[in-house]
Amino acid sequence: MNFSVTILGSGAALPAKNRMPSAQYINCNNRHFLIDCAEGTQLQLRKYKINFQKISHIFISHLHGDHYFGLVGLLSTMNLLGREKELTIYGPEELEALINPMLNYGGSRLSFNLVFVAINMKGKQTIYEDDVVEVFSFPLLHKIPTAGFLIQEKTKPLKINPAMIEAFNLKIEHFKDLQKGKDVILDSGEVCSFEKVTLKPTELLSYAYCSDTKKSIKVAEAVSGATVLYHEATFVSKDQKRATTTFHSSTKDAAEIGQKAKVKKLVVGHISSRYKTNNQHQEEMARFFTNSAVAEDGMCIDLTKV
Ligand SMILES: [Zn+2]
């Protein structure tokens, strides 16, 4: 099983030398997702050697340009490359009306089915689900309606302990039930408890994305217990006032949310271009949250190793 996040853009709205604006690629047990799609996202996907035709679902947090201005470019390229696989985009309800005319005026019909799903910005809800993963959206506290996303592994099949196969004379037909946590009746007529012959279940992992937002206790509740939380920290704590008035967060705000939510690891991003180096963010995060990192473009977070 694999669960990793590649940061494609860790910067805020104004162009910066070393950071692109918001976009992230997530591979959760071979489900391929993109969260936000700022200007230049397709170039970042190329740069980090991610096959973007694999992406099946895109989640757009809100309609500030630094979170979705790359969509039309990415969709056009997917079309030029002859994509056939359906693509679903989740986002604010106005997104479809913004994107479709830009594609249509160019006169090209997409070679693939493009589906828009409007997110209800009012509460936490499941927006995507299959047998291995569930994706939730939940409201953030920003100037315009904005959603955060939580990608959560679902129950994984238990693994049979190889040493027990011979010891209990287990047959292939027993495996399915045992892996689902059900006891089976052996050929001898004995009941075999699944706990005896399967390995200890591994922890279910989850990834939460919160950008852009002001500090909010409701956000902490929505991401409670996440393995990794990506929370914006556009500003350092000396610029707290600016963070609050612009409906963004400081490093301190992000750390408080991480602590309240009891997440294992905190990664802060959406860094303002006013900071020429990472130094202030890094120094503060080291003080505020032990297991933390400041996002960089190209950073890959392996959730199985957090
Ligand atoms: Zn914003």
Q: Layout of SSEs?
A:
Blueprint: E1 3-9, E2 23-28, E3 31-37, H1 41-47, E4 57-59, H2 71-80, E5 87-91, H3 95-105, E6 114-118, E7 125-129, E8 133-139, E9 147-153, H4 162-167, H5 172-179, E10 184-185, E11 191-192, H6 194-197, E12 206-210, H7 217-222, E13 228-232, H8 240-245, H9 251-261, E14 265-269, H10 279-288, E15 292-294, E16 300-302
Parallel strand pairs: 3-4, 4-5, 5-6, 12-13, 13-14, 14-15
Antiparallel strand pairs: 1-2, 1-16, 2-3, 7-8, 8-9, 9-12, 10-11
Helix pairs in contact: 9-10
Verbal overview:
This protein has 306 residues and is of the alpha/beta class. It contains ten helices and 16 strands. The strands form three sheets. A seven-stranded mixed β-sheet has the order 6-5-4-3-2-1-16. A hairpin with a 5-residue loop joins strand 10 (184-185) and strand 11. Helix 9 (251-261) packs parallel to helix 10. The protein is globular, with a radius of gyration of 22 Å. The mean pLDDT is 95. Bound molecules: zinc ion (ZN). Residues 62, 64, 142, 212 line the site of zinc ion.
Look at the structure and give the CATH class of the largest domain: Alpha Beta
Strand order of the largest sheet: 6-5-4-3-2-1-16
The mean pLDDT is 95
Q: Compute the number of strand runs.
A: 16
The fourth-level CATH homologous superfamily of the largest domain is: Ribonuclease Z/Hydroxyacylglutathione hydrolase-like
